[in-house]
């Protein structure tokens, strides 16, 4: 007999065409219905995911929570998808996926004594290629998804082994046709039956009222029982994903292997609703920094380690639900999302400030008249040249000296520059400098009231050009684009044609971008209104380009630093267009090009075919300059809040925004003359950087540069005082540059230290990690693109050992 495993479930979107309060109520109603069906039918089994829903029930209906616990203990209520929520599976950062599992599985284990064995994202709009490793290391060896559909992504069958770059594999199953049913279950079952031959005669068939919850009905259950009596060659089993994957594990060695990400569905979701995506990136990076320095401060100064980090993470993770972070919910849902991000950001900011100031206050800084100490903290595991800006002075009090210098911790004068202040009051000044700060540490700089004895070269700046020792950039006054970016050291021109021109794309598609693989219907470009030099000095030069299209305007402040071999562009766009998208284009002068995109805790090479692709902090295009010498050169485009790009031939296009109607879903056809709420209207800001590089992006340390943009050094303007801490310190040493510190935190169950690292360039690596403050070190071997987590016991007599992502010891 062929087996069809009938999976009773209720796909429940806590937010979509409704706000979370409605999703909250529907969760209770759905779970009540599931409990009733379990009480009425002895052989019925119910499957559910998302720890966030259970916490709602626990806090709002404790009696129902106890009923659910009983059914879980009976083995009839099955927990799948051990994550906090079913998130978008492209846009969250790597550490967010780790925390989905850590917080979700910890909740299920604590409350119910179980952990999910099966990953479960039935409605997410695509699945990045590092998920098999993340799932395996979160306690799940199998995965269920539905999108992309067969017409969007060809796969060898419904059932296969999915492999990530490190070699981790999970058994994966693509749901046939739909994850929920209404009044047509018999037709759905017969439709699924046709797929059995492509799934080794084992197939899951999902049923139950869904999207707005509901779950299996009495009619559903009776239909299954009646149809099971009629079918002669197929057995319909009330079952669970756990049982299905246990059974197919017997034929695991026969399953085909898929080694790539699972795309594309709803490509417009990578870029629509810029605000929620920027808040996601900012909050993720802020809380990671706050955890790092809180752990250090706890050990270094005795500052308490906060107990509310998980509350902040829960808010971030909830907002990563696929219909929130993807930008496809109603407008009111995004007011709620902003509130939740606000809570997470407030918690993280407060805890970060506690940690930093607990350390800066205890640094031993000698008393000196007219000296202002500036303590700069580096959150990264490598030394950085930190771009530091301080604003100081208030009317007649606390004035900056007429003449001053800035010295590093060794007493060396370093260049500084007065730039435009944020406050428009007399005597308020803003100073910028670039200073070296050691790995995961701090350094103390001093503003001293002495005239400078040094003569520093400046970044040569005109209205149309910027030049430092390595790069020269020229602006085309007619287009406002970058006409040339010339590498003076290697004698190479980066661009072929004007770059950084904002291009307007006709985009009448819905919020998802259903059916769209490319956004390339170019209908216009922003034209320059003014181009002028706004900054010039020994630290940096800046050209401001103000351009206009229709009712919209856009400002690009293009800056070149004396000591940095990359170009920074701060963008402010006031977008007033409807049914259009905005891209910024960078045509490069390379041959035999390879396009690489960062994905969560990894990267992937994709075709330069113009299709819209998801990315994290960077996209790179590398090729050959000379056909004879085959000299390798490339350009990485880094960003601090964008997730979508395409590479078409020799052109990288960064997708800035899209402006469809909120929650517009085909086949609804809007009246384009009517008034609808439009996404991405108004003022937005973001930063991108251009990192030209000879050789590969790996050699250029693109990953590190992008992280520096997203996790900026932190600063405390201090006073002089006695203390036990030195004026410079470092708290980690990693002797291989491709090994990245992802997270440093206290363990979930005690005061042990958790250190998460990942290999970033797809090469096997032996590394020594030293933690001098804890007087500990460890030698590790990393496979290609491997994520590893180590636990450093508080007791120095206990050995360091490795855990998985949910902090369980590995054998």
Automatic annotation (TrEMBL):
<dbReference type="InterPro" id="IPR041147">
    <property type="entry name" value="GH38_C"/>
</dbReference>
<dbReference type="Pfam" id="PF17677">
    <property type="entry name" value="Glyco_hydro38C2"/>
</dbReference>
<dbReference type="InterPro" id="IPR000602">
    <property type="entry name" value="Glyco_hydro_38_N"/>
</dbReference>
<dbReference type="Pfam" id="PF01074">
    <property type="entry name" value="Glyco_hydro_38N"/>
</dbReference>
<dbReference type="Pfam" id="PF09261">
    <property type="entry name" value="Alpha-mann_mid"/>
</dbReference>
<dbReference type="InterPro" id="IPR011682">
    <property type="entry name" value="Glyco_hydro_38_C"/>
</dbReference>
<dbReference type="InterPro" id="IPR015341">
    <property type="entry name" value="Glyco_hydro_38_cen"/>
</dbReference>
<protein>
    <recommendedName>
        <fullName>Glycoside hydrolase family 38 central domain-containing protein</fullName>
    </recommendedName>
</protein>
<feature type="domain" description="Glycoside hydrolase family 38 central">
    <location>
        <begin position="264"/>
        <end position="341"/>
    </location>
</feature>
<dbReference type="Pfam" id="PF07748">
    <property type="entry name" value="Glyco_hydro_38C"/>
</dbReference>
């Amino acid at each position: 007999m062929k087996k069809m495993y009938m999976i009773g479930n209720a796909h429940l979107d806590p937010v979509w065409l409704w706000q979370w309060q409605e999703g909250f109520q529907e969760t209770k109603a759905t779970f009540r219905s599931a409990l009733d069906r379990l009480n009425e039918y002895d052989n019925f089994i119910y499957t559910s995911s998302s720890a966030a829903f259970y916490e709602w029930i626990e806090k709002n209906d404790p009696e129902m929570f106890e009923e659910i616990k009983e059914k879980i203990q009976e083995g009839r209520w099955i927990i799948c998808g051990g994550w906090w929520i079913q998130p978008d599976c492209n846009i969250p950062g790597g550490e967010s996926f780790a925390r989905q599992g850590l917080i979700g599985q910890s909740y299920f284990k604590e409350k119910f004594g179980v952990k999910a064995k099966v990953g479960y994202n039935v409605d997410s709009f695509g699945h990045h290629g590092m998920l098999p490793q993340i799932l395996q290391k979160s306690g799940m060896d199998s995965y269920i998804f539905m999108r992309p559909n067969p017409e969007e992504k060809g796969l060898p069958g419904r059932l296969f082994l999915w492999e990530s770059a490190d070699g981790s594999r999970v058994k994966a199953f693509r749901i046939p046709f739909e994850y929920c049913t209404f009044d047509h279950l018999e037709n759905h079952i017969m439709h699924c039956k046709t797929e059995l031959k492509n799934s080794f005669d084992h197939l899951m068939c999902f049923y139950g009222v869904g999207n707005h919850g509901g779950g299996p009905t009495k009619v559903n259950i009776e239909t299954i029982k009646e149809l099971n009596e009629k079918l002669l060659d197929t057995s319909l089993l009330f079952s669970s994903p756990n049982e299905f994957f246990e059974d197919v594990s017997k034929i695991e060695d026969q399953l085909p292997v898929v080694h790539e990400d699972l795309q594309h569905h709803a490509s417009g979701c990578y870029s629509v609703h810029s605000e929620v995506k920027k808040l996601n990136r900012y909050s993720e990076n802020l809380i990671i920094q706050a955890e790092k320095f809180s752990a250090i401060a706890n050990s270094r100064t005795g500052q308490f380690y906060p107990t509310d980090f998980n509350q902040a993470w829960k808010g971030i993770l909830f907002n990563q639900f696929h219909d929130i972070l993807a930008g496809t919910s109603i407008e009111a849902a995004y007011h709620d999302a902003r509130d939740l991000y606000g809570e997470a950001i407030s918690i993280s900011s407060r805890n970060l400030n506690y940690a930093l100031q607990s350390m800066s206050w205890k640094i031993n800084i000698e008393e000196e008249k007219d000296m202002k100490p500036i303590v700069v903290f580096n959150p990264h595991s490598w030394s950085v040249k930190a771009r530091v800006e301080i604003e100081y002075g208030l009317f007649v009090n606390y004035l900056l000296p007429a003449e001053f210098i800035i010295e590093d911790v060794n007493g060396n004068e370093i260049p500084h520059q007065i730039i435009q202040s944020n406050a428009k009051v007399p005597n308020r000044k803003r100073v910028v400098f670039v200073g070296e700060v050691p790995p995961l540490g701090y350094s103390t700089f001093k503003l001293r009231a002495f005239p400078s004895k040094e003569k520093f070269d400046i970044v040569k700046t005109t209205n149309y050009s910027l030049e430092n020792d390595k790069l020269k950039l020229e602006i085309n006054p007619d287009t406002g684009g970058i006409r040339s970016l010339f590498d003076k050291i290697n004698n190479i021109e980066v661009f072929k044609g004007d770059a950084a021109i904002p291009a307007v794309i006709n985009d009448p598609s819905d919020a998802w971008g259903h059916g769209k693989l490319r956004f390339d219907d170019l209908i216009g470009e922003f034209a320059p209104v003014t181009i002028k030099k706004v900054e010039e000095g020994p630290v940096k030069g800046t050209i401001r380009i103000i351009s206009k299209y229709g009712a919209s305007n856009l400002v690009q402040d293009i800056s070149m630093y004396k000591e940095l071999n990359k170009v920074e562009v701060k963008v402010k766009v006031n977008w007033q267009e409807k049914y259009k998208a905005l891209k910024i284009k960078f045509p490069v002068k390379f041959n035999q090009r390879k396009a690489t995109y960062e994905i969560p805790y990894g990267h992937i090479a994709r075709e330069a075919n113009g299709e819209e692709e998801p990315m994290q902090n960077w996209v790179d295009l590398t090729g050959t300059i000379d056909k004879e010498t085959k000299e390798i050169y490339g350009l990485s485009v880094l960003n601090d809040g964008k997730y979508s790009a395409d590479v078409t031939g020799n052109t990288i296009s960064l997708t800035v925004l899209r402006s469809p109607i909120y929650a517009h879903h085909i086949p609804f056809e809007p009246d384009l003359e009517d008034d609808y709420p439009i996404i991405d209207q108004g003022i937005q800001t973001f930063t991108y950087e251009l990192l030209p590089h000879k050789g590969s992006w790996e050699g250029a340390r693109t990953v590190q540069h992008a992280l520096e943009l997203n996790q900026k050094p932190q600063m405390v303007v201090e006073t002089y005082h006695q203390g036990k801490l030195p004026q410079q310190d470092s708290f980690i040493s990693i002797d291989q540059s491709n090994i990245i510190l992802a997270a440093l935190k206290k363990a979930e169950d005690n005061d042990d230290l958790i250190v998460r690292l990942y290999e970033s360039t797809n090469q096997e690596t032996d590394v020594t990690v030293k933690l001098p403050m804890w007087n500990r070190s460890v030698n590790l071997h990393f496979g290609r693109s491997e994520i590893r987590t180590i636990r450093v016991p508080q007791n120095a007599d206990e050995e360091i050992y490795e855990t998985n992502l949910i902090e369980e010891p590995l054998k």
